[in-house]
Amino acid sequence: MATKTDTDLLYEKAISRCGLRFTSQRRCVFDVLLNKRDHPTATEVFRRAKSRISSISLATVYNCLETLVECGLARQVHIDREPTRYCPNLLEHGHFVCSVCGEVWDIEVPSGGGAGMPYRLPEDATVISADVTLHGLCPRCNAGKN
Ligand SMILES: [Zn+2]
Ligand SMILES: [Zn+2]
Questions:
Q1: Degrees (nearest 5) of the Cα angle 25, 84, 27?
Q2: Which is deepest, 26, 46, 49, 59, by most CB within 10 Å?
């Protein structure tokens, strides 16, 4: 690797902050997440990781994902009762899920809780985090409807 990219630095910093070693498997799983930001499930991450490291196991992929979440490099996304999906977008954001094809999109949500919140909260309540998921039809499925 000649020059380090921002992603390399971000990754190495986060991994060492957690007191962990840089392993090619962790790095591979992280790359898979960054490569296609479509909120894959662990099984899907495994499928993609396996095409790069053929010896990688599903258990390892689960471990790597867990580590990345602990180190703050990825977050889990829970949509209804579906298997957990993984998202490398660490900015505060919500998700839009297409009810037809199941595609998941990142959407902006008002940040900072408090004043930016469009919801009417119980009096004196404080928002700690927002887990916003909207359901609907994506542009492609919407177009197919007509
Ligand atoms: Zn769709
Ligand atoms: Zn996301």
A1: 15
A2: 49
Instruction: Provide the domain count of the chain.
Output: 2
Nearest Cα residue to 49 out of 7, 6, 86, 8: 86
What is the distance in A from the centroid of ligand 2 to the CA of 29?
Answer: 16
Mind listing the pLDDT tens digit for each residue in 22-70? 789 999 999 999 999 999 999 999 999 999 999 999 999 999 999 999 9
Asked if residue 79 and residue 42 are part of one domain, the reply reads: yes
Residue 115 predicted with pLDDT over 80:
no
CA of 92 to the centre of ligand 2 (A): 9
Side-chain half-sphere exposure of 78, counting CA atoms within 13 A? 4
Q: Do residues 10 and 79 share a domain?
A: yes
Q: Which residues surround ligand 1, an ion (CB under 5 A)?
A: 98, 100-101, 138, 141
